[in-house]
Structures are given as C-alpha cells and as structure tokens.
From TrEMBL, chain A:
Pfam families attached to this UniProt entry: GerE
Gene Ontology molecular-function annotations: DNA binding
Protein name per the record: LuxR family transcriptional regulator
InterPro entries to which the protein is assigned, alphabetical: GAF-like_dom_sf, Sig_transdc_resp-reg_C-effctor, Tscrpt_reg_LuxR_C, WH-like_DNA-bd_sf
GO biological process: regulation of DNA-templated transcription
Source organism per UniProt: Ruminiclostridium papyrosolvens C7
Annotated keywords: Transcription, Transcription regulation
Membrane spanning residue stretches: none
Ranges of residues in domain HTH luxR-type: 106-171
TrEMBL record, chain B:
Gene3D superfamilies, sorted: 3.30.450.40
Protein name: LuxR family transcriptional regulator
InterPro entries registered for this protein in UniProt: GAF-like_dom_sf
Superkingdom in the source lineage: Bacteria
Length: 180, 86
C-alpha cells in the first residue's frame, strides 16, 4: 500500500477538493456534510480509480473541523471498517469537545468551594429559597447572600443556574447529590 | 457499505466536466502551497495529535495492509495519513 501511495503521489498537502481532483468521497462529504462511500468507478480522476473511499465529517456544533477517511486499494470497504471510521470520528469529536470545555473553564483548584459554600450551592440547586437556606444552615439571610456572591466570584458566573452547571461540569458536585 | 446515490455522483461529475477539470490530473497538480500547508497544519494541530493518539490504538486492530486512514482539513487538504503496517 505504501508503495502504491508513493507511486501516485498521495502525500500531506494533497487536496481532495472536487475542483482539484474531481469526484471522490471526501469532496462529496464536504459538499453534503455526511458520510460518503465511493468506489473506483465513482472517481472522476484516473488517479483514484483503484481506490475505495469512505469519508466521515468531523463536526462540532454543526460546524465541520475536518474529515476522516478510509482508503482501500482494490478492495471494497467492509461494514466493520465503516463502523471503525464512525467510532473513530465520534471519539475524536468527543475528545476535542471535552478539551475545549476544560480549556474554557477556570482551573478546578482555583474554584474549589469550601464546605459551607458547597452545602449552600446544593440547596440552591434543589430550588430552596434563601430564607430557608438561612434557617437550615443556621445563618442569617445576609450571610447566605454573602456566600452566594463568593460562590459566583469563585466560579466566575453571574447566577445560581450558571453556578450549578459549572459545578457539574467541573465535577465539584454530582447530579446525584441534588435531591429534588 | 451503502453506496452514495448515483445522482449525487453524476452531479459531481457534471461539475467537474463543466469546470474543465482533466481526469488524467496528477497528484502533484493538487498540492497546495507550502505557506498554505503550514497554516493548515498549524490550525489542525489538536486534531492531528488526537488522530495520532487514536491511530496507535487502531493500528493493532487493522490487519488489512491495503488500507490507509486519512485526515483532511475542512477544505479537503490532507493533513495526516496512516498506513496499516501489521
């Protein structure tokens, strides 16, 4: 396969766009934003006439970030390989998504809440009003408000809903800890 | 594997013919410039390193020597190719 690839000149920097190399799975996948399977006869250019292609778009929030393709010489691509390509694309997207989320979040160490703040946030997540939180925690309503401000500041958020979401994302609090 | 509907293939062929693309084009004619390639490789860095990581796991699963995995940019520029060498 390596020799064949070298022979036809398939190397980094080669364009699979339709305007460059004609009809192929990657070009069609770009056009239609969906997985595409093409056989040698489908390919417009002679260069690809011995290959089978299966291309999968890599998309995050409906915008494409690239394409993953399997190329097979003189042999149809089996269903199992298509599944591997789909799963690989899924894994790449998921890893990228989680790395993007974590890079957008402040360092977990910097926003760890103390015991009291965490207890208050759990009550907030359950929809308990400030007055009741004060009663349950044995503090004044002003202290509840003070803790809420500190929580928002530490988490760099503006409201209770955002604070709860961020804590869940950062695994400071799990969904099971919220009793509704 | 489900093949691409013929109509979409034909429409693509029509576009190629109308644009005057010759079907004997060599791979070299499709290579993008060095500067554009460096930009594409820089932009695709996180994607390429993830692809490399996953490929290390995949390589052992892929026993077919006639296979190559390709990673392209959004424009269809080849950023990485990995050949099964088991």
């Amino acid at each position: 396969m390596n020799k064949k690839i070298e022979k036809i000149g398939l190397k980094i920097g080669m364009s699979f766009a339709e305007r460059s190399i004609g009809t192929n799975a990657i070009a069609l996948s770009i056009k239609m934003k969906k997985p595409v399977y093409t056989t040698p006869l489908h390919h417009y250019c002679d260069l690809l006439r011995e290959f089978y292609f299966y291309s999968v778009p890599l998309e995050i929030k409906k915008s494409d970030i690239g394409y993953l393709a399997i190329c097979s010489l003189n042999e149809p691509i089996k269903v199992e390989l298509g599944v591997i390509a789909n799963l690989t694309a899924y894994k790449i997207i998921n890893e990228l998504k989680s790395s993007k989320i974590s890079s957008n979040l402040p360092d977990k160490k910097d926003c760890l809440l103390n015991k009291k703040q965490l207890a208050i946030l759990k009550l907030i997540a359950m929809g308990v009003p400030d007055k009741t939180i004060a009663l349950e925690e044995g503090i004044t309503i002003n202290t509840v408000k003070y803790h809420k401000k500190s929580i928002f500041k530490k988490l760099e958020v503006e409201c209770s809903a955002q604070a709860v979401i961020k804590c869940l994302k950062l695994n400071i609090m799990s969904i099971d800890q919220i009793d509704c | 594997m489900r093949l691409q509907p013929v109509e979409e293939i034909l429409t693509s062929w029509r576009r190629c013919i109308n644009s005057g693309l010759i079907n004997s084009a060599a791979a070299a004619s499709t290579y993008i410039g060095e500067d554009a390639l460096q930009t594409a490789l820089n932009e695709g860095k996180p994607l390429i390193s993830l692809f490399d990581e996953i490929w290390r796991e995949l390589e052992n699963l892929t026993v077919n020597k006639n296979l190559v995995f390709l990673l392209t940019s959004t424009e269809g520029v080849l950023l990485k190719k990995s050949v099964a060498e088991n």
